[in-house]
Amino acid sequence: MSAILEVRNITKRFPKVVANDNVNLTVERGEIHAILGENGAGKSTLMNIIYGLYKPDSGQLIFDGEELNISGPHEAIEKGIGMVHQHFMLIPVFTVAENIVLGAEPKGITYDRKKANDLIREISQRYHLEIDPDAKVKDLSVGLQQRVEILKAFYRKAKLLILDEPTAMLTPQETQKLFEIMRELVKQGMSIIFISHKLEEVLQISDRVTVMRRGKAVGTLKTKETNEQELANLMVGREVVLRIEKSEYKPGDVVLSVENLTVVDQQNVTRVKDVSFEIREGEIFGLAGIDGNGQLELVEAIMGLRPKKSGSVFFYGKDVTNFSTRQLYREGISYIPQDRQADGLVLDFTIAENLILREYKEPTYSRSGVIQYKKVYENAEKKVKEFDVRPPEYMLKARNLSGGNQQKVILAREVGYNPKLLIAVQPTRGMDVGAIEYIHRRILELRDKGAAIFLVSLELEEIMSLSDRIGVIYNGQLMDILDGKTAIREQIGMLMAGSRFDKTTLEAR
Amino acid sequence: MKNILKELYIPVVAVLIAIIVGSIIMLITGFNPITAYISLFIGAFGSVNNIANTLANAVPLILTGLGVAISFKAGLFNIGAEGQYWIGAIVGVWIGYSFTGLPWYIHIPFALIAAMVAGGLWAGLIPGLAKAYTGANEVITTMMMSYIAIYFSHFLLEFGPMMDKSGTIPQSPVIKESAVIPFLIKNTQLSYGIFIALAAAIFVYWLMFKTTWGFEMRAVGYNQRAAKYAGMNVPLNMVFSLGLSGAFAGLAGAVQMLGVQHRLYDSFTSGYGYTAIVVALLANNHPIGVIFAAILFAALGTGSQYMQLNAQVPGQMADVITGLIVFFVAAHRIAEVIKDLLARRQKKEVKA
Ligand SMILES: Nc1ncnc2c1ncn2[C@@H]1O[C@H](COP(=O)(O)OP(=O)(O)OP(=O)(O)O)[C@@H](O)[C@H]1O
Ligand SMILES: [Mg+2]
Fold first, then answer.
1. Ligand nearest to the CA of A38
2. In terms of CATH architecture, what is B2-351?
3. CATH for A251-332+419-509, among 3.20.20.330, 3.40.50.300, 3.40.50.2000, 3.10.20.580?
4. Is residue A401 within 6 Å of ligand 1 at its C-beta?
5. Most buried by CB count within 10 Å: which residue of A174, A191, B64, B166?
6. Are the C-beta atoms of residues A300 and A483 closer than 8 Å to each other?
7. CA–CA distance, A25 with A8 (Å, rounded to integer)
8. Which of chain A's residues have a Cβ under 8 Å away from the Cβ of B210?
């Protein structure tokens, strides 16, 4: 039998870059084919071409034995290609069912809610993807939203499923769940293209790997016959250090002190319960926890983006509990928010403008209310080079950057100013190994220079390799604070799941 | 340069398609489109006087168009520019006739600034505060405030406090000589107000793209959440944006009073506040683009009368073209789809 998909000599140019340069790729039936590549290597572009969203400048696509015309996603969908985008394309105020059937509603003049719901229940049961069809998408966790996207593909009877960085926003648990689903799907005859920056995931789930570099497909390997280091080197085109050395831990004065902080949300549900902790100069304090356990609310409350019910926050001994977000920034705090597209960037602004999104009012960039664009561009030129944003064109709109490069812009803005305190939520989400290596080095450098770092991440690996002390949050409560050097995975894992750790439970296992 | 071309692409294509579709409609209804367009053009630009009248018509459209463009750019839909225009007109005229003995260089700026403040408050105070702090939809509030302004003017003029006591026609007294913005070309409607409009456009451009305030307005307009996370005061910004938007609509009213009408007549609508929405749309909210869009619609207005007289094409044909332009700008995606189809057709032909 022929391959399910053959990509032949696809080339796609954008104004400033060749995003795909004569790319060839074959996806066999029933395989999980991983695509690896640096930020901006052209992975999403290639997937969008396969899905019919972009038209290639040249090249051919053979799907299921026949050539695709590439006239738009409707054709791809019709032929049996499903795609879950890097940034979801759901309508938040619609229900799960409405989102799934949108554009392909069950026949009939009026929308038959019951019929749609039944259909979706049936599919979700068949594939073990439980979900409430009547829930509003905006109320769902990221993992569940993704499930909706996958169901959407099934509902349209996809034979090939494209997953563009599906795990970037998932917790490790959700990721494992997704992998189970993927294995089940492949058993039922589906083929999957899987994009991820996490090498261990690629090694764990895929059958074959294609590596892309600067628009070219530089090689396809059998997963069984390769390893992390080889993949990383092939991807970046040079030797990559996967493990970083940390210098000695020398804590100084207390920078941030949070005392008995309690936060309730708009529905009056308590999200953060009586949390207290301190972060010192030259220290990385990592906050581990499963998504949705109050990390976001805690950070937003500290940053003045969300009301605090009780408790106080001190910055170098000064009471900043009631400071506005801007006042906190002016004190020397930097903040990398979780959702880059929604919170971190104005996508229709240029890179240069995004780089001064917080500082446009400071004397460095404006004089009596007039922005000094010359300085803005000088800054942009420097930051873009320093943080290796690709392409290095600071007049480009942020919208036209690849996901990882968008993240680099935020990092350049927040890390570049040598803050006294850096609050980083998922700072390396969606970045390639080379970029992660670089960011981790920058964060450690900041620490060694005496800054305090508050690192919130869903990735235990990241927390454990960087943090000097590790706090674990569960259900809004700070369960414990551990020494970063001696803490072990199992211990943190149990705290994250809400059970207090003691030696006997561990030994009993 | 490339950017400018890209910005111009959609409006120019929209206008061209509108002209073509307009011709088809004229052919079907038995008129000669070529003579119609020629007379339309002559009517609008055929002589110094015609040009002057076209530009005169453009002045209030530029100013109200700027107002609407500001709000759109900030992500707000001020569709009550008509009402803010009336408030500006009322205040401008009132100051114009009730103060005596002021030199022109105080009287005129005084009237204009007061009108701007009034228009700004009309949009910023109730719709702006309501939007910012309760989330009330500004489309509805600005619209309602617009009706209130128009009915308020009826009250003032129809045997109310602003009615000219020397007659029985519902109109205000004539403004004092010192408040008149002089005509630029005799026997036309064109006053020095055109320079006020042009300066306003340049000012708004500068404000939007070169100042920190403009930076904030655009950031809030594009992505409120990112603006908030960056430390900007989003609600306050909305109030200011709507206020500024109303200020320019108010200025339009006052300039029209001091420069052209010299007194306020009772009427249901000036029409400028609504056409302003179309102007901003065609200009893609770009302040300099507003100038050209305003001149285009003004030209359709002045040219249509001439067309009616000389080509016997009903003047409403100009309205049809206006409507078509709006349609094609709003539906510029249609143009993209057509472009797409053509490209695919070519590809297929190459293959065959
Ligand atoms: N619409 C666009 N206009 C201009 N350039 C674009 C556009 N979309 C993508 N690019 C450019 O094409 C290149 C490839 O982008 P793409 O999104 O495919 O990368 P990627 O491999 O998915 O990266 P990431 O891992 O960061 O998501 C990048 O340099 C990007 O800036
Ligand atoms: Mg991508």
1. 1
2. Orthogonal Bundle (1.10)
3. 3.40.50.300
4. yes
5. B64
6. no
7. 7
8. 370-371, 373
Alpha-carbon distances, residue A403 vs A11, A13, A88, A390, B197 (angstroms): 20, 18, 12, 11, 43
Ligand 1 atom closest to the CA of A42, numbered from 1: 18
B211·A369 Cβ contact <8 A: yes
> How would you class A46 by CB atoms within 10 Å of its CB: exposed for 0-12, middle for 13-18, buried for 19 or more?
buried
- Distance (Å, rounded) from C-alpha B94 to C-alpha B173? 9
Distance of CA B231 to the CA centre of its chain: 33
Return per-residue pLDDT of chain A as tens, 509 residues: 678 999 999 999 998 889 999 999 999 999 999 999 998 899 999 999 999 989 999 999 999 988 888 778 888 888 899 988 877 778 888 888 888 887 666 655 566 778 888 888 888 887 777 888 888 888 887 778 888 888 888 888 889 999 998 887 777 777 888 898 889 889 888 999 999 988 889 999 999 999 999 999 999 999 999 998 899 888 888 777 767 778 888 999 999 999 999 999 888 899 999 999 999 999 999 999 988 899 999 999 999 999 999 999 999 999 999 999 999 999 999 999 988 888 999 999 999 999 999 999 999 999 999 999 999 999 999 999 999 898 899 999 999 998 889 999 999 999 887 899 999 999 988 888 888 888 898 899 999 999 999 999 988 889 999 999 999 999 999 999 999 888 888 888 888 888 775 545 554 44
Contact partners, residue B209, CB within 8 Å, separation at least 6: none
Annotated domain spans of chain A: 5-236, 251-332+419-509, 342-418
CB B179 within 8 A of CB B104: yes
In this structure, chain B runs to a length of 352
Residue-range domain boundaries for chain B: 2-351
Q: What is the CA radius of gyration of chain A?
A: 24
Which ipTM score applies to this complex?
0.84
pTM: 0.83
Any ligand 1 atom below 6 A from CB of A402: yes
Chain B CB contacts of A325 below 8 Å: 228-231
Hey, of B7, B73, B223, which one would you mutate to test binding to chain A, going by the most A CBs within 10 A of its CB?
B223
CATH, domain A5-236, list 3.40.50.300, 1.10.3720.10, 3.40.50.1110, 3.40.50.1240: 3.40.50.300
